[in-house]
From TrEMBL:
It comes from Pedobacter rhizosphaerae. It comes from the Bacteria. Coiled coil: none annotated. Residues 5-62 form the HTH lysR-type domain. Belongs to the LysR transcriptional regulatory family. Pfam families: HTH_1, LysR_substrate. This is DNA-binding transcriptional regulator, LysR family. GO terms for molecular function: DNA binding; DNA-binding transcription factor activity.
Amino acid sequence: MGYQIELRHLKYFQVLAEELRFRKAAEKLFISQPGLSRQIKQMEEIYGVDLFVRNKRKVELSTAGVYLKAEVDFIFNHLETIKTQLDNIGKGRETELRIGFLGSAAQNVVPELIFRLNKTYPGIQTLLEEMPNQLQVQLIEKDKLDLGFVRLPRVPEGISRHPIFEDTFSLVVPEDHPVNERNFQNIRQLANEPFIFFSSEDSPLYYDLIMSICEDSGFRPKVFHKSVHAPTIFKLVEQGLGVAIVPSSLQLGYHLKIRFFELKNIPQRTELSVIWKESNRNPALQNVIALLRG
């Protein structure tokens, strides 16, 4: 056969795999719909497999297509990384590091890392973004994030996890709540209150851990609201819509009308870990991991 797979084939395939509509994918690629169909057919002939399952109602990825989509995503992400690294070299910068983090890492852990990084490796540029646990994992798997700070007891295969900080839990109540520093004894005093939890979808095991704090005290909390963001939880508490249990380190950096009571006499603890993809080839990553482990 006279033709071979070219980069344009892979881009056509990637866009169609995302859109799953020939017309919409063709518009996005600025080519005709018949032209896109020919290119995909050409790929299928070269590989000797069907990449899509087509019928009159819809287009879906075949088993082979699902596999190829993951590989193509990796290829284009890696090409983007190469472009970024070459741009950094051309501008006299050493490299760029993309870091995701939870709010509880924003006050001490991440600023300390950046300070040490600038001191030891001043050429490394950083892109920082606060985001929930699962989004960090997804972006690390797709090579769109180099490093993440999460509260997850385990991560998918191919991702490394290194614990860096163990934290206690604290109860959060509105500033004018009748429970105060003088009369607070244990969390059972709040058994009849509505609770605001971190989302169970983002981290089911973390959700269960907080739930166990209440169950160990003899009650199952009524969870009225959930969020993946601490500021949202704190605003809801401030408005009197419930109480919450959060990592104690989250009380730093927020100036709201809420109070924190550390739950010292409970066995539950939460661990902040740093995660990264083992196959990540960013030259700055190993230097940063060595700093964190040190």
